[in-house]
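Let us practice reading a record.
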Amino acid sequence: MKMFIGGNWVDKDEKIDVHNPFDGSVIDTVPRGDAQDVEAAITSAQRGAEIMRTMPAYERYEILHKASELMTERLEELGRTVSSEEGKIISEGVGEAARAQETITLSAEEAKRLYGETLPLDAASNGAGKFGLTLRVPCGVVAAITPFNFPLNLVCHKVGPALATGNAVVVKPATDTPLSALLLTQIMLDAGVPPEAIQCVTGSGGVIGDAVSGDARVRKISFTGSRDVGEHICQVAGLKKVTMELGSNAPLIVLPDADLEKVATATAATGFANAGQVCISAQRVLVDQEVYGDFIDTLKPKVEALTTGNQLEESVGMGPMIREADAVRVNEWIHEAVDGGATLVTGGDRVGTM
């Protein structure tokens, strides 16, 4: 696929391979963008920001509502694209596509509800009989830097609100999973988004991300990803407005009166969805000693029942991790825990990216 800059689909000689995480096969290629491409994208987005700023709310609503309808029509294609490039099982891929469509629907509705506020000013004597007004105005050019694990919905989380509120957006999708964002870009254009109002630049995060974040014409950055990268973006961005959704640490606490069957089912589902590559996955389970043994006995068969394999096959319950290096890292953590005294209840062996 090509990247979208300045109203055109742009290709380059130097490419990045997009792999299926299950078997490493190349499913597509995208251009390896550079700082010059970012310059062109932001220049175009400046023009797009002026167009969007003056576009009435009902038009922004109609465009995003149309985009939502087009996403519904292409739901299976979107879901399969997500699963193919990211590795989550096909039901999770289609589920993400459905959630992304809802995100755009909600963004369309919110385009009609950008309310200001009336403020009484009589808390001070010279404000008696006076009031103030606040108005919400667009930022201008918004940068959307997105992670690999939800390559469609987290792009929609940024693109939808940015367009709904009258901004132009420059999307920098994750290097490993750019195809979903490019497909969304095409859908937005088909729905009537002005071509200057959306850019999608593919390439290395260190090159594209830094160039976007450091450009003074970008007035807001929305980033989802790791704490370290988020901190780096803030350092590069300076005084820009930033919205960061970074890593988390999500424990489950199991008390003696808990329904162990229900909790074990939820633990297996939330801990292993998308091979655990979700920022709100269950990462630790803190179990009261009184029910610890019973909980392990209840959880173990549920985990062992998860079938691993090709994420595009309906029978598979958990797909691969995004890269083999990540699977190696997780496997090392398991062995470190065992060496430190932990008990391995089940599994513990790595095969490729699983």
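A brief commentary: The longest strand covers residues 218-224.
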